[in-house]
Amino acid sequence: MSEKIVTMGIGLIVSIFVARYLGPENFGILSYAASLTSLFAISTHLGLHGLAIREIVKYPEDDHQVLGTVFGLKMITAIIATIAFILFAIYTTKPGNEEFWVLCLMAGVILFKPFQVFDFWFQAKVKAKYSSIARGINSLVLALVKIVLVVFSATLLAFAFTYLLSAVLIALLFLFFYKSESNTSLFDWDFNLSRAKHLLSQGWMIMAGSFFAILYLKVDQVMLRWLVNAEEVGVYSVAATLSEAWYFIPGIIVASLFPKLIELRDKSEEKFKLRLQHLFDILSVLALFIAIFITLIADPAIHLLYGLEFQQASVILSIHIWAGIFIFMRAVFSKWILIEDAIAFSMLTHGAGAIANVILNLILIPGYGGVGAAVSTLLSYAMASYISLLFYKKSRPLFWMMSKSLVAPIRYSIKYFCI
């Protein structure tokens, strides 16, 4: 939690300086490239995060084989994704111009995604603090570098290079801490084909869900670049950054209560449902207060932090922030999926959200730009994390729980006054 607060706080402050310096158009190109990187890099996920941790915990004597196999699989897909990214850049931009080189620099980031395997090992060995320390150091160093670039009036390419620098630095930090805490050398790692097949057979569904999740989180900025221009992406990115800064809160709250939910599910179905309702209520009310607060201060906050060039972001922010209500409640739903072993439904709901977002963006962005993209985001989040639950018998009770949570302030007010 400390790492998240520090890194997000530092990142938000630095992004304000960078956005004001670069202006909407250049900041939009940078944001567009970062969103594209996320979309192409999802191929390296392979649904292996939780599976790799599980394998290391279950078979500690084989951790060198697990790490070698997962690293090998991720590196193969990273190379393919990087080549695909560069070909995409050649096809969609004019080779040699500034935007082309920004995309090429960002493509290099994907090659360092396989080094996430060190993080899996830290989590499996209950040494996740080293991952947090590594990310914290990385955030501080990159913040200083970006501030120096602003002070010395650096080019857009220099800021794009910081993304590649960050990927290299975090990989080196992970490697340093791994060598400090492990008795295993990287040269002891080996790739096992049968284990690779076993992991992929289990991970493909998780990967599909992750792909759809990233798609409806990042596709709005990509489509804004295609359908409008880079300046609109820059304005929208500012609003999205401020809106999404709160999304770590529900994850931390739910993660801390997850073991208790598992325990209650085995002991008492009634108490389990009661605690789920309490969690939905708490998170929906919290998200509601955040949404109201941000809506009220959006206009002066954008003006103060980013200046007149980004003023249109206040309208986008006032819409986008309300999507947080569904993101907050999704945190509970995601744990319910794990408890009830309904991973396939996770993929389907994320898929519904992704499809809805793309279709709505095609309809709304040409006429309304960033505001249309914000409306699309709000409606697609509602589809993925709320409305879609109504169409599946097993998840329908959660739809009604969420519905009750959406009117939680009214429910508790009536209860209080009736008493």
Radius of gyration: 22 Å
Shape: globular
What string, H for helix and E for strand, traces the elements in order?
HHHHHHHHHHHHHHHH
Helical segment tally? 16
Instruction: Compute the separation of the termini in Å.
Output: 38 Å
| Total of domains | 2
Largest sheet: none
Beta-sheet strand percentage?
Answer: under 5%
Assign a percent range to the helix content.
over 70%
Structural class: mainly alpha
Low-confidence stretches: none
Let me know the average pLDDT.
84
Give me the count of strands.
Answer: 0
Subcellular location: Membrane
Transmembrane segments: 5-23, 29-53, 65-88, 100-121, 133-152, 158-178, 199-217, 279-298, 310-333, 345-365, 371-392
Keywords: Membrane, Transmembrane, Transmembrane helix
InterPro entries: Polysacc_synth (IPR002797), PolySynth_Transporter (IPR052556)
